[in-house]
Amino acid sequence: MTHASARARAIIVGGSLGGLFAANLLVRNGWNVDVFERVPDELAGRGAGIVTHPELFEALAAAGIDFDDSIGVKVQSRVTFAQNGAVLSERNLPQTLTAWGKMYHVLRAALPDVHYHAGGTVASVQDGPDQAIVTLTDGTVLHADLVIAADGFKSSIREYFLPDVKLQYAGYVAWRGLVDEADLSRETREALFEKFAFCLPPREQILGYPVAGRGNSTTPGERRYNFVWYRATSEDIQLPNLLTDRSGKRWVGGIPPTLIRQDVLAEMEDAALTLLAPQFGEVVTKAKQPLFQPIFDLEVPQMAFGRIALLGDAAFVARPHCGMGVTKAGSDAMALVKALQAHTGVRDALADYSRERTQVGAAIVQHARHLGAYMQAQLKNEVDREMAERYRTPDAVMRETAVPARF
Ligand SMILES: Cc1cc2nc3c(=O)[nH]c(=O)nc-3n(C[C@H](O)[C@H](O)[C@H](O)COP(=O)(O)OP(=O)(O)OC[C@H]3O[C@@H](n4cnc5c(N)ncnc54)[C@H](O)[C@@H]3O)c2cc1C
């Protein structure tokens, strides 16, 4: 069976942003689509900010999603604050910042419920001569012409096909959080809102920008400020300490925000007040549920295995400095559908998709690695640190971080 025959079937593993982009695009292209997402409830609540790029809007439009100005908050410029809170440098750079919850909401709302199976966990995927075979953890066996593994950076499907590919820890973590606009002092609101802001104290980097608030509101007064604070964290001692919860359990790769120990949070807040511009100190210490994520690089040599394709973070994870994760997932989905339109056989289409997107994914990972080299150098010797410092002027950071780039 080829995809050209009526109602060819696609199974998508993972119903987050990557899976939803693919599902919406395939449904619009006449596919019979089933998305299996192991989380039984809505995925909203991963309230992180997302930088938008032109390709993200192209992918939303191709997925049939009508969006207007409420998709995000517009800023006109970037600013870097000194540790004492004075403005060091400013740069004109209009951009729209959205939020993870907003993206999820528009993508999920566009997909009819019949296609989305919340609470469905895929146990295994195998390619077969005529169809791929998908087995769920409840024992159900399904057949599909195409399987898309959009199951995130810890993808078990990738692990099955590419057991030697491992996440590479980059040597630093990103603390993230959101604070309600209304909770900030007038001075901080005036300094930060309407801006994409940075502060670069020695060995640290923090950035922040406004995003939609509760109920996805972008109305001034109801927005939130989102921060991402990069901190060098050694793999052997500091990271295991951060990842150990109150009960002594050591988590691998990430810890649920509610389980981060109180002393870890207190140390982070003290550091924020000592190291960061006071505007950022206030943002960090007023954030409701700060969390941290170890930063990883992930690269794969191929994204297709017969009728099975990797998509989004399941294939490539770039450090967040270019702000491309969601855009990359949307562009993967567009490229996949374009390849399916160009071929009568799914295998040929996926081979083309893999060739094109493996190159792009590798280029994005490489670019993000370059942007994050400064943070990585912090754990090395004084010479490396000095060298990295020379390339870390406020102007360079503002010019290069999370800006549109074609890969
Ligand atoms: C610090 C930080 C900052 C970031 N900033 C940005 C930014 O500014 N802009 C941006 O675009 N991106 C950013 N990202 C990246 C972005 O969050 C991801 O790239 C994006 O969400 C794409 O994810 P995905 O859909 O591929 O995977 P995920 O969002 O990880 O989703 C995978 C889904 O698969 C489900 N799943 C897994 N296994 C199974 C299974 N066996 N059966 C069923 N379901 C399963 C999971 O429950 C999950 O919902 C950032 C990331 C970090 C860490």
Overall geometry comes to globular
Provide the structure class. alpha/beta
Helix content: 25-40%
Q: Which fold name is given in CATH as the topology of the largest domain?
A: D-Amino Acid Oxidase, Chain A, domain 2
Q: Can you tell me the CATH architecture of the largest domain?
A: 2-Layer Sandwich
What's the order of the H and E elements?
A: EHEEHEEHEEEEEHEHEEEHHHEEEHHHHH
Q: Strand order, biggest sheet?
A: 3-5-4-12-13-14-11-15
In terms of DSSP E residues, the strand content is 25-35%
CATH first level of the largest domain: Alpha Beta
Number of strands: 17
Tell me the number of structural domains: 2
Number of separate helices: 13
Largest β sheet strand count, sense and barrel closure: 8 strands, mixed
Radius of gyration: 21 Å
The distinct ligands, each listed once, are: flavin-adenine dinucleotide
- The average pLDDT is 93
Unreliable runs: 1-5
Distance N to C terminus:
34 Å
